[in-house]
Design brief:
Layout lengths: L5 H12 L5 E4 L6 H7 L4 E6 L2 H10 L6 E5 L13 E7 L14 H14 E11 L6 H13 L3 E8 L7 E7 L2
Parallel strand pairs: 1-2, 1-4, 2-3, 4-5
Antiparallel strand pairs: 5-7, 6-7
Helix pairs in contact: 4-5
The structure holds S-adenosylmethionine (SAM).
S-adenosylmethionine (SAM) binds next to helix 2 and strand 2.
Length: 177
């Protein structure tokens, strides 16, 4: 039965992948749930979000953590500030729940950002993509990323989707070369 939401499933998968020495990126901090999860299981997390509210929420959520560095900037610019290889990058696309739904990830910048993430990943590192198709632009964003995936030297390790219309989709890719 595929009744768990994609975030629960992503965290379950990551729980057995992550190692204390790993370096991670949360490309969409939002309320900081993914950032905190990664920070509790790795040595360093770089976090990105364009919204001040999201950065503040994440700061608060991670106040006890000393291994989190947050940037209020678009994730497609992550290579400007991350200057080391990373083991895991997570994207949770869409908008911040209970906030302005017009501040949302966009197909063009999302595509640039996943390319940057792939550049930063070490071989064997994983890209975790939580894609939403139920809001305007979500299907286009997901389609562009799917097309991009086809041309990557990467293995699609895992996909998951709940059995309901317009359910979000989880994809986990391993960089192969
Ligand atoms: C679904 S929420 C993320 C949820 C979050 N991972 C969590 O655990 O709470 C999507 C977030 O993406 C952010 N976002 C939208 N466009 C962005 C961009 N270009 N760069 C970085 N973050 C962006 C939004 O502000 C929003 O906070």
């Amino acid at each position: 039965m595929n009744k768990d939401n994609i975030n629960t499933v992503a965290h379950r998968w990551l729980n057995s992948y992550l190692k204390p020495e790993h370096i991670c990126i949360d490309a969409t901090c939002g309320n900081g749930n993914d950032t905190l999860f990664l920070a509790q299981r790795s040595s360093k997390v770089y976090g990105f979000d364009i919204q001040q509210q999201a950065i503040e929420n994440t700061q608060k959520r991670c106040e006890k953590m000393t291994n989190v560095e947050l940037f209020q900037m678009s994730h497609d610019l992550m290579e400007d500030v991350v200057h080391e290889s990373v083991d895991c990058v997570i994207f949770n696309f869409g908008y911040l729940p209970k906030a302005d739904p017009s501040i949302i990830t966009l197909p063009h910048t999302s595509l640039k950002a996943v390319k940057s993430a792939m550049n930063l990943l070490r071989v064997g590192g994983v890209l975790v993509l939580c894609c939403y198709v139920g809001h305007p632009g979500g299907q286009e964003e997901t389609d562009q990323i799917d097309e991009w995936i086809l041309h990557q030297k990467a293995e699609l390790l895992f996909t998951y989707r709940q059995d309901r219309p317009a359910a979000p989709i989880l994809k986990i890719l391993k960089k192969d070369a």
